[in-house]
Design brief:
The complex is a heterodimer.
Chain A: H1 6-17, H2 21-47, H3 54-65, H4 76-104, H5 122-139, H6 141-152, H7 157-164, H8 168-185, H9 198-201
Chain B: H1 3-17, H2 24-32, H3 36-46, H4 60-70, E1 80-81, E2 84-93, E3 96-103, E4 108-114, H5 123-136, E5 147-153, E6 156-162, E7 166-168, H6 169-174, H7 180-199, E8 212-215, E9 218-221, H8 226-230, H9 239-249, H10 252-255, H11 260-264, H12 270-286, H13 290-295, H14 299-306, H15 313-329, H16 341-360
Antiparallel strand pairs in B: 1-2, 2-3, 3-4, 4-6, 5-6, 7-8, 8-9
Helix pairs in contact in B: 1-3, 7-12, 7-16, 12-15, 15-16
């Protein structure tokens, strides 16, 4: 596991895109590893009292997984679509399993020094976004593609534009629309009088 | 809905976004005409506009990682570190999460402690980690939890310990104080373990109830010398560095067991552990939080206050001997304490004899 490089990831991703489901099993732990490393670094930063360089750290994590600058695939767009789909699949499964664990008991834990704090609904949001995207894809897959690349694949507007061979303005417009659409699908605008946030309500 | 219709909505929505809010109604009147459905679509999307700025701008990976970080530690269950497959999270403490794991080579259950990620960021610290782990691995004593292995897998540093079944002393103390003979029995084992380590030049530095496991085989001291790993650079923690380290790691409980020289960031030695032993000892007897015992140490009084019955003469003899012993552990000036565990051990054993005579009589 230690020796997996971005080339290996690219190779596995290609195998997966060609229908090899066993490649997904090998890719999943790699995404998990990056996820845990990232979480660990967030914690480390918080403890050290540094400003959370969240964006820089998450970009770094994506780069380690998908070194898109060096990808030699003939069809870059296809490669990124697959990477983003991989992230979507793994993260949604992850979010689902964590939700399940919380409800079903899951692992018995024992607090030593500090209590175990599990109160976070942001993971539910990932699952709901996935479901809303499935509904949107039934109408038109194009906005879904942008959301996959940006939200799951971590690409910037410019990167997504390059990959899709679209102008950045087209990407921005499609992205704007997709965000509003998803938000509406997931429960509509916040009521200004209540302090309830999206994440709060998704727990209900 | 057709893709063409969706495209129409997308285009119009974006067009409206750049129109000033007070002109949007007129704009939509012009563009939608009699198409009420289109108008309703756009208006419902616009109602969400103000919240789209933060919404979805954080990549899912970041959302998941933050959620994980908020929970105070990753559930690495199912992951493999080196040859260890993590089965379940069994505990978490200031120095990292502890997992029950399978050693796939020797096919046995072990405890894997994951060290916080800031080790990974610092070459010097990671080198020090290796060096310290080698030292801790030298400890081989029936009352010290054995370190089997230490390693790093892709930036995650971990220590592999023997897997213990039992409860920690802090869990035990929740149910109230120990009997004097129990406490003395444990005290002997703790002192023996400390002596073994001190002879090899290893100081615990973080002796406290949550670092002591009570098993069928008696006491087991955990995290021997792990505190050392917290300090960067030199062999001993120094002022700022220690405070920094405290700020990073200390759960409020830890401070209560620290010797004055440790809190001040001065030189520490075996007598630092002896101080912590004293705090521990009084907590075992009184069941009181350590800081209370430390500020107003009067065992005889605190126990007779708590006990419904009056203490017998023999019992109070043992207790006053115990109090003398503990006071000497807790001297502010290290030179006034027991100077070594070989100095302390006969005194603790002597107590056991007194306590035994007491229970026999």
């Amino acid at each position: 596991m230690a020796g997996i490089s971005t080339e290996d990831i690219t190779r596995l991703l290609r195998a997966w895109s060609e229908g090899d489901e066993s490649a997904l099993e090998k890719l999943t732990p790699l995404v998990y590893r990056e996820l845990h490393r990232l979480a660990g670094r967030y914690m480390g930063r918080e403890r050290e009292g540094h400003t959370l360089q969240a964006t820089a750290l998450v970009n770094e994590a994506y780069l380690r997984l998908i070194d898109w600058k060096n990808v030699q695939w003939q069809n870059r767009a296809h490669f990124f679509a697959m990477s983003a789909q991989l992230m979507r699949r793994v993260l949604v499964d992850y979010a689902r399993s964590r939700r399940y664990n919380k409800r079903g008991g899951g692992v018995r834990t024992l607090a030593l020094d500090e209590g175990l704090v599990v109160s976070d609904n942001s993971l539910s949001l990932i699952v709901e976004i996935d479901l809303a995207l499935q509904r949107l894809a039934a109408i038109d897959p194009r906005p879904v593609q942008i959301v996959e690349l940006r939200y799951f694949g971590g690409l910037s507007i410019e990167e997504a534009a390059e990959v899709l061979k679209l102008s950045p303005i087209t990407v921005i417009r499609r992205w704007n629309f997709a965000k509003a659409w998803l938000l509406r699908e997931l429960g509509g605008p916040a009521k200004s009088d209540s302090g309830t946030t999206r994440a709060d309500r998704s727990a209900i | 809905m057709t893709p063409e219709r969706l495209e129409q909505i997308e285009a119009l929505y974006n067009d409206v976004l750049v129109v000033p809010r007070n002109e949007r109604k007129a704009f939509l009147n012009r563009t939608c005409g009699n198409d009420d459905e289109l108008r309703a679509e756009i208006e419902s999307l616009l109602a969400c506009e103000d919240r789209t700025d933060t919404y979805l701008e954080k990549p899912a990976l970041q959302v998941a990682a933050e959620s994980l970080a908020n929970q105070g530690g990753g559930l690495l269950v199912g992951q493999t570190l080196g040859r260890y497959q993590l089965l379940s999270l069994v505990g978490r403490g200031g120095m990292g999460d502890v997992y029950c794991a399978v050693d796939s080579r020797l096919n046995r259950i072990v405890a894997v402690k994951i060290l916080p990620s800031y080790f990974a960021d610092d070459h010097e610290r990671s080198q020090r980690f290796e060096q310290e782990a080698r030292v801790i691995a030298l400890l081989n004593h029936p009352h010290i939890c054995i370190l089997h292995d230490a390693g790093c897998d892709n930036g995650t540093y971990y220590l592999v310990f023997e897997y213990l079944v039992g409860e920690s002393l802090s869990e035990r103390l929740v149910r109230g104080p120990l009997t004097v003979s129990e406490a003395v029995q444990y005290a002997i084992q703790i002192t023996e373990a400390l002596e073994h380590a001190h002879q090899q030049g290893i100081i615990h530095h973080d002796l406290k109830p949550s670092n002591i496991m009570l098993t069928k085989a008696g006491v087991k001291l955990l995290d021997f010398g792990i505190a050392e790993l917290r300090y960067q650079g030199g062999a001993e923690p120094k002022g700022d560095q220690l405070l920094y380290s405290l700020a990073l790691h200390s759960t409020s409980g830890t401070l209560a067991y620290m010797a004055p020289e440790q809190i001040k960031g001065g030189e520490t030695d075996v007598r630092t552990d002896i101080f912590a032993f004293g705090v521990l000892m009084s907590e075992m007897i009184t069941g009181q939080p350590a800081f209370l015992a430390r500020s107003e140490l009067n065992l005889v009084a605190s126990i007779s206050n708590g006990a419904a019955r009056a203490l017998s003469q023999a019992e109070s003899q043992t207790l006053s001997a115990l109090e003398t012993l503990i006071r000497r552990c807790l001297a502010e000036d290290p030179s006034q304490r027991w100077q070594s565990t070989s100095d302390l051990l006969p005194a603790v054993t002597g107590l056991a004899n007194t306590a035994n005579r007491e229970s026999a009589g």
